[in-house]
Structures are given as structure tokens and as C-alpha cells.
Design goal:
The protein is of the alpha/beta class. 41% of the residues lie in helices and 20% in strands. The strands form seven sheets. It has a seven-stranded mixed β-sheet with strand order 14-17-18-13-12-20-21, with helices on both faces. A five-stranded parallel β-sheet has the order 9-8-7-10-11, with helices on both faces. β17 (431-435), α14 and β18 form a beta-alpha-beta unit.
Length: 566
């Protein structure tokens, strides 16, 4: 595994890279979406990954807290296990207590002025370099850490940890540089300028387990814009987040700009929300947790030096709606299988409720069942696996509770699946449930697992069911409609315009790509700030407007006053 570079090594690395990167960053850097490789047997990427998986799977990594340039190890020792083999430990890490978190806050404040004064072009170099390291030198490292720690298949890890993470860093650079091209109008007698600053204080990045890319983005985006950060990675994604952190340091990120502080939520939350230096919270997780954090900020609002900004991406109860005009059953089935069951339904955007007209149900049901029967559920180290385990015991118990209820409720019928086994890993079968009641709690609540519930509606109620879709759940993250009738597509899209933040027509509800489908939901799904777009990066900019007067004011009186006094 990578080791920290000395300060001299980092400076040498910066010198080696600074000229070419500074040249194109200052002009017009254009990011490109990273290639997603197929990892065919014998390919360069497959061989490199196989070697890293063997290496990473054979040891337990020691992951310190990192504050400034200091590595800290405490007596509060915890372990990250492999979810598909939970008796196997992957990493040993340490949880920050309130004293350590206060130390991190102080370290961030020491780093702030220097980092804020660093020109954007210089900061951009670091993140472009980090993107290149992720795409090249350390691609296999971050993939192995993600596959083993978060139980992702090759393709899910590749999309996430290699492509999306590097895309976030690269495109954020492009958008930040483009934003600075706009300047205020200067007129005769005065010149006007806009200065880009970080926020006084620190940003708290509170990250989820399910995307390595999101974890790195939550910390990286505010840092690019001149802010300092306390990064709280998920306890079940420690290793991949740490690999990402070390890549940023190797790319030239100065100590103290991002402080790596794994910590329990019940410890981290109270410390940051009671700090007068809190500038903002960049959050991805459950709506319940985000509400709790928001309440604590409100309770402490008079303590802060500045009003904190809160950015939240929460969950979803995402839908697939099949219109009676939709005729491509194969496409609907395959799209739904991928959306509902890739990464065991643990994507914020995963389809968990489906509305199918009675005239189409038999064909769609048979297709879904056939696909699930063919699907291999197993270890991500077995390359023919489509679906792996869920993340931990807490998730396993929660999801199993919904399945147990589905087995006994008169409103619910399990079409296929329903089995659970945690003897070795946290495995839950891909499960399809049919409901008679479209308002059953299984259609309302976020399950965050491989459970798809279907409501079969009368074809004559194709319009009426849209109200159900819009009102059944408090979330509004993603949704997809399948239809061949163009008029119907327009009508359905209008009915559901506030039901999602990301809306898909004849495609699955998952798979947003940076700069192609900016991501974020409204209602209880979050603040809809659209990560993966230029609008998101501006959330971390603290702008200063400066006017310089070049004409002398000869008299305090206005001309009409002079004429009136004569």
C-alpha cells in the first residue's frame, strides 16, 4: 500500500508536474469522462487488479487518524471487515474522540489562510494530478480497496472508484476555472472585480459507505475552492477513503487542508455543530441523520462566526413506471434488474418500487423472474458474480425485517427471492414482491437493499397512478418512465416533474454520470445542489466584490443641489 511522501518529495513532485498543468489550467482546461474498462481476462487492467486484490486480501491495513502532518493512533481501535466474509478483517482504524476533533479543527484553521491565498490554478493542479493518479498509478489500489471493503463487483467499483471519482476532481477543476472567467462590468471612473475566497472556518464532510467517489468528492470539492475540511469517512468504507486521502496528499495537497478523522456520528456531530468555526456541512446519508444535523445547527446558530451552509444528498424511494404504450419488455426487464439489484440495491438511486399495467405484467414478471434465477449472488472476487452482500449486519437485519413482513402480510406476495444468510457474509437474495396496496409501507420507506416491490395497475388508470407515484413517499430523488407514445411521455413527465431530481425516459433510474446527468434530489432526498455540475462547485465559493474608484469626487453635493442654491 502507498506510504506518505515526505514534504520534500511532495515539493519535488509538484515541481515536476507544475509547468504543463499550470499551462493548460490557466488557459482552458477541458475535462473528459474517464474510460470504463472491461477487465477482460489477460488484459492489462485485469492483471494489475488481480495482483492488487491478492495483496490487499492478504493483510490488515493500519489506518491512522491524520491531522495536519501528524498520524494519530488511539486506544479506541476498530476494524473494517469484508462484508462478503465478515470474519475476515480488512483494516484496523482509530476513532476520533472530541479532543482529537478539536485538534483537527485547530489544525484546519492554521492551514486556512495559506490555502485560501493559494491561486486557484495552483489548487487545480493538485486535483488534476489526483485525477490522473486515480486513473493510472493507483487505479488498481482504489478498486481493490472498494471491492474488498464495500463488497463491490469489478464493474461497480470501476464505475465508482476509478471513473466517477476522477471525473469529479477533473470536472470540478474545469468548472471552477470557467466560473472565474466572468467578471463584473467596469465603467468609466471605476473598475470592478470579484475575488474568490474560501469560507472562514472549516467544512465538515460526512460521507456514506456506498460510493468511494462520493466520499472523496464531499471532501475534495470544498478544498478545491480554498476551504479546509474535516473528513469523516464511513466506518464501512475506511480503506478506500484512506487510499483516496493519500492520493490527494501525494498529488500535493498541503497538510491540514483535509484532515482525515474517522469518528462515530454521535461524537462527530456534536463537536462540529458546537464549534464557532463551522462554515458548512457537506453530507450524504439518511434523511433522518441530515435532519438531526440540521436541527443541531439551528440550535447552535448564535454560536457561529458565519451562518453555515448545509448541503445534503439523502435517500430515495425511486420508481420505474411502465406506461401501457411501452412495448420493449426485454429493455424494461433488463433496465429494472440493473437498477434494482446492482450493488445489492444500495445505491441512492436504485429502483425499489415499480408500477406496471396489468396488460404488461405477465411478460415483465416472467422476464424479471428469469433474470433473477440466472443471477449469481456471491463474492466480488468471483468475477461472474452480479450481486454481492449488503454492507453490514445492521443493513442485513433492517432488510430482513421487510422480507419477514412480506412473507406474512396479506397485501404482499414474494414473487421470487426472500432468502437471507449471514453465516459467512451478509447475503440477501434479490427479491421481487408484488403488493395489492400501493400505499403499503414497503412502497413508502427506503429499504436500501435488493428488494423491488411491484404494484400492478389497471391500464385504464395509467394517469391516476401518477398521483400515487408523486405522493406515496416523502422522497424525490430518481425515477424512470418507459413509454413509446410521445404524447404520453410529455404528459407523464409533466405530472411527475416534482417527483424526482433525476428523471429518466426509457432508461433505468441509476447510472448518473458526472457532467452528463448532474445528481441530486429534492423533498426529503436532499438540497438538490446537483453534484457533477458547475452549480455544485459554486456552493463552496465565498465571493468578495471589490470596486476601485478612479475619478476624484470634487464635491459632496449633487449637481441639482448646486443649481437650486443659486
Amino acid at each position: 500500500m502507498m506510504s506518505f511522501l515526505s514534504r520534500k518529495s511532495i515539493l519535488d513532485l509538484a515541481k515536476r508536474f507544475s509547468v504543463p498543468h499550470l499551462t493548460y489550467c490557466k488557459k482552458s482546461y477541458r475535462a473528459k469522462n474517464e474510460t470504463i474498462y472491461g477487465f477482460e481476462p489477460g488484459s492489462e487492467q485485469r492483471l494489475a487488479l488481480d495482483a492488487k486484490l491478492k495483496e490487499y486480501n492478504s493483510e490488515i491495513f493500519d489506518i491512522p487518524l491524520v491531522i495536519g502532518d501528524e498520524e494519530i493512533r488511539t486506544k479506541n481501535v476498530l476494524f473494517q471487515v469484508k462484508p462478503f466474509d465478515h470474519q475476515s478483517k480488512l483494516s484496523k482504524y482509530y476513532s476520533a474522540d472530541p479532543g482529537i476533533l478539536e485538534k483537527a479543527i485547530q489544525a484546519s484553521q492554521k492551514a486556512f489562510r495559506s490555502w485560501d491565498a493559494t491561486p486557484l490554478e495552483k489548487r487545480a493542479e493538485i486535483f488534476v494530478r489526483a485525477a490522473e493518479l486515480i486513473r493510472g498509478k493507483y487505479r488498481a489500489d482504489i478498486l481493490a480497496a472498494t471491492m474488498l471493503g464495500q463488497s463491490k463487483t469489478i464493474i461497480q467499483a470501476e464505475i465508482d472508484a476509478a471513473a466517477e471519482l476522477s471525473d469529479f476532481y477533473a470536472f470540478n477543476v474545469q468548472w471552477a476555472l470557467e466560473a472565474q472567467k466572468w467578471t463584473p462590468l467596469s465603467v468609466d471612473g471605476c473598475s470592478n472585480a470579484l475575488h474568490w475566497r474560501g469560507f472562514e472556518g472549516f467544512w465538515a464532510a460526512i460521507a456514506p459507505f456506498n460510493f468511494t467517489a462520493i466520499s472523496g468528492h464531499l471532501a475534495g470539492a470544498p478544498a478545491l475552492m480554498g476551504n479546509v475540511v474535516l473528513w469523516k469517512p464511513s466506518s464501512t468504507a475506511i480503506l478506500s477513503s484512506y487510499v483516496n486521502f493519500k492520493i490527494l496528499r501525494e498529488a500535493g495537497l498541503p497538510p491540514g487542508v483535509i484532515n482525515f478523522v474517522p469518528s462515530g456520528g454521535s461524537v462527530f456531530g456534536p463537536v462540529i455543530t458546537k464549534s464557532p468555526f463551522l462554515a458548512g456541512i457537506n453530507f450524504t446519508g439518511s434523511a433522518e441523520t441530515f435532519e438531526s444535523v440540521w436541527k443541531e445547527v439551528g440550535n447552535n446558530i448564535s454560536l457561529y462566526k458565519s451562518f453555515p451552509r448545509l448541503i445534503g444528498e439523502c435517500g430515495g424511494k425511486n420508481f420505474h413506471y411502465v406506461h401501457p404504450s411501452a412495448n420493449n419488455t426485454t429493455h424494461i426487464v433488463n433496465s429494472t434488474i440493473r437498477s434494482a439489484f446492482e450493488y445489492s440495491g444500495q445505491k441512492c438511486s436504485a429502483c425499489s418500487r415499480m408500477y406496471v399495467p396489468k396488460s404488461k405484467w405477465n411478460g415483465i414478471r416472467d422476464g424479471l423472474v428469469a433474470a433473477v434465477k440466472q443471477m449469481k449472488v456471491g463474492s466480488p472476487l468471483e468475477y461472474d458474480t452480479f450481486m454481492t452482500s449488503v454492507i453490514d449486519d445492521k443493513a442485513f437485519v433492517r432488510i430482513k425485517g421487510y422480507l419477514d413482513r412480506a412473507k406474512t402480510s396479506p397485501n404482499l406476495k414474494i414473487v421470487i427471492g426472500g432468502g437471507c444468510d449471514k453465516s459467512k457474509g451478509y447475503f440477501i437474495e434479490p427479491t421481487i414482491v408484488e403488493t395489492k396496496d400501493p400505499n403499503d409501507r414497503i412502497m413508502q420507506e427506503e429499504i436500501f437493499g435488493p428488494v423491488l416491490t411491484v404494484f400492478v395497475y389497471d391500464d385504464r388508470e395509467a394517469v391516476d397512478v401518477l398521483k400515487l407515484i408523486d405522493t406515496t413517499t416523502p422522497f424525490a430523488l430518481t425515477g424512470a418512465i418507459f413509454a413509446d407514445d410521445e404524447k404520453a411521455i410529455k404528459e407523464v413527465s409533466e405530472h411527475l416533474k416534482f417527483s424526482t431530481g433525476n428523471f429518466y425516459i426509457n432508461d433505468k433510474s441509476t447510472g448518473a454520470v458526472v457532467s452528463q446527468q448532474p445528481f441530486g434530489g429534492a423533498r426529503k432526498s436532499g438540497t438538490n445542489d446537483k453534484g457533477g455540475s458547475p452549480y455544485y462547485i459554486l456552493k463552496f465559493a465565498n465571493l468578495l466584490s471589490v470596486k476601485t474608484q478612479t475619478k476624484t469626487l470634487e464635491d459632496w453635493r449633487y449637481p441639482y443641489m448646486l443649481s437650486a442654491s443659486k
